[in-house]
Structure to design on (367 residues):
């Protein structure tokens, strides 16, 4: 038996985004910068997205 | 993939992600899917011989677009380590990664709440030992953040701000304090060594934090995890949850970024189980006083520094 899914108030209710938030999906692109880190996106063989983040000059002390 | 059913008696959603039953379970280190793909070695989730921090979509997601998302955040290409042992700069970078994922996932129409979390230790159900966390982007507002918003209404403002002021005034449960961040065992902690890491300034999310605040948050998280590991001289299991503002609708005035840790150990080798009262009635029965746990944890943080 499959129970009907009842939604709580507000669930699935499209609402306006918060000020300053973009609703445009971000497409895979070249290197992007955010604060002290940069990142690049890849699409894996099975279609999943992978994001590589790095920090230039990071001190590696293991 | 995934099936949401609303549990009327509990007043909460249950997510059926039955494909997760097949997920990788405690593989040998040489078969770790979160390690880099090294020459001659097995192909892992990360097709690179080295990396710093990587985020990818979970192969066994609890939520998937257009009904949310589930991602894995790998902290390091080393199979060993923790938030406590990573270099300070790496944990600082992680704060920016969290911020970027919160912003991008939160901007999606199908996402109402972004939860960044980490399960550490087999005691809390970890299936991969490689240092990593996860992100769930929910297509609804889950009960815990919803209750925090209700607490804001009940207290007539930001509940976290009010509780933080009380904890600072009392000071007995404060275990770590810097210029911008306070860590305390909360007055009504449910877990023996529960700790809340709280920004002193009201910030709804990581997006509102100045770079120095992100660095301070990273420092506090490192100090706390080092302290946890010093408690019983062993890796300390916990669930860590980053609480931020919901991402749909107008930003609530009360949401206050903070990180909660729920460690299941109540003493060395002794687990707190969620049993009759906790599961049947929703009331935690605590075996320790937060004031006494705070003394122990404060000393451990000093030892771990």
């Amino acid at each position: 038996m499959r129970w009907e899914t009842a939604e709580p108030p507000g669930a699935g209710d499209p609402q306006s985004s918060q000020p300053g938030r973009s609703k445009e999906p971000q497409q895979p692109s070249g290197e992007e910068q955010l604060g002290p880190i940069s990142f690049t996106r890849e699409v894996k063989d099975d279609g999943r997205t992978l994001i590589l983040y790095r920090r230039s000059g990071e001190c590696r002390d293991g | 993939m995934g099936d949401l059913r609303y549990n009327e008696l509990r007043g909460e959603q249950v997510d059926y992600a039955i494909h997760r039953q097949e997920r990788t379970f405690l593989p040998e280190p040489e078969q770790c899917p979160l390690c880099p793909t090294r020459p001659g070695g097995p192909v892992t989730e990360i097709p690179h011989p080295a990396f710093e921090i990587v985020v990818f979509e979970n192969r066994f997601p609890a939520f998937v677009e257009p009904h949310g998302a589930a991602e894995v955040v790998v902290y390091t290409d080393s199979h060993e380590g923790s938030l406590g042992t990573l270099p300070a700069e790496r944990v600082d970078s992680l704060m920016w990664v969290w911020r970027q994922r919160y912003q991008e996932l939160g901007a999606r129409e199908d996402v109402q709440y972004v939860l960044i979390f980490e399960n550490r230790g087999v005691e809390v159900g970890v299936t991969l030992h490689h240092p990593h966390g996860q992100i769930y982007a929910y297509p609804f507002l889950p009960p815990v953040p919803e209750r925090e918003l209700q607490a804001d209404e009940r207290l007539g403002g930001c509940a976290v701000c009010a509780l933080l002021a009380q904890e600072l005034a009392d000071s007995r449960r404060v275990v770590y304090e810097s210029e911008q961040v306070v860590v305390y065992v909360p007055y009504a902690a449910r877990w023996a060594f529960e700790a809340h890491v709280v920004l002193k300034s009201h910030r709804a999310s990581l997006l509102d934090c100045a770079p120095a605040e992100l660095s301070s948050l990273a420092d506090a998280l490192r100090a706390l995890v080092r302290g946890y590991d010093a408690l019983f001289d062993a890796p300390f299991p916990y669930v860590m949850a980053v609480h931020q503002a919901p991402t749909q609708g107008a930003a609530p005035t009360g949401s206050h970024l903070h990180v909660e840790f729920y460690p299941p150990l109540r003493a060395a080798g002794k687990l707190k189980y969620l049993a009759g009262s906790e599961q049947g009635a929703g009331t935690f029965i605590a075996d320790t006083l937060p004031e006494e746990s705070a003394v122990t944890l404060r000393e451990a943080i000093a030892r771990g520094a």
About this structure: The CA atoms of residues 121 and 237 of chain B lie 5 Å apart. Chain B touches chain A through 45 residues (CB under 8 Å). Chain B has a mean pLDDT of 94. The first strand of chain B starts at residue 3 and ends at 7.
